[in-house]
Specification:
By secondary structure, the chain is an alpha+beta fold. It has helices at 22-26, 30-35, 53-59, 73-84, 138-141, 161-173, and strands at residues 7-9, 12-14, 40-41, 86-89, 96-98, 110-115, 118-123, 128-134, 152-156. The strands form 3 sheets. The chain has a 5-stranded antiparallel beta sheet with strand order 3-8-7-6-9. It has a two-stranded antiparallel ribbon with strand order 1-2. It is globular. The relative contact order is 0.20.
């Protein structure tokens, strides 16, 4: 995996383009086969009901206290769906629409889910967690206090110079407005 922009690893920021091999640092690949870690099928996200958005925003707060009790699969599924799940098929372009936008509709964001049992990649279309490393890596990749958190989501996006280049090229084609006439 490669960091795009800056990737925050604990209290350290790694510049774009630097290889981020946190999975390799956390757990040896052989551990996955040894522990026979299987994909986790998630239940369909519950998209009706719940708290109204404005009330949820009013009650939002930051805490540094993390519970170690595992989240119910339904709660985890709802959280992942809201983060970057599939909410529609797209008519204009091939593929699927997402619950969160991405730059130039690239949809190249990956959500790594860190649980006590291992590290998984959220596969939104299949609505499952695909295992990539077995074992508890929370203490190795989380900030102090988060080493026992029930779940940690790591948003990963590839470093791409072509995005900055395309923005520069598209801005060159944009019409430039004329200066305002002096009054």
């Amino acid at each position: 995996m490669f960091a795009r922009g800056y990737f925050r690893a604990g209290r350290t920021c790694i510049p774009a383009g630097a290889p981020v091999l946190f999975l390799a640092l956390a757990i040896p690949a052989a551990a996955l086969a040894e522990q026979n870690l299987q994909p986790i099928e998630l239940p369909k996200a519950q998209i009706t009901g719940g708290m109204p958005l404005m009330q949820a925003l009013a009650l939002r707060r930051t805490t540094r206290a993390f519970g170690d009790e595992a989240l119910p699969l339904q709660t985890l599924s709802n959280l992942l769906w809201a983060s970057f799940g599939v909410n529609r098929s797209r008519g204009v372009k091939a593929g699927l629409g997402r619950t969160a936008p991405s730059a130039m509709n690239s949809q190249d964001i990956e959500i790594d889910v860190v649980l006590a049992t291992g590290i998984y990649i959220y596969e939104a279309e299949a609505n499952q967690l695909r295992p990539v490393a077995a074992g508890d890596a929370r203490a190795k990749i989380c900030q102090p206090g988060g080493e026992k958190a029930a779940v940690t989501l790591v948003f990963v996006a590839p470093a791409k110079d072509d995005f900055a280049r395309s923005m520069r090229d598209s801005s060159a084609r944009m019409p430039i407005s004329s200066p305002r006439p002096k009054a």
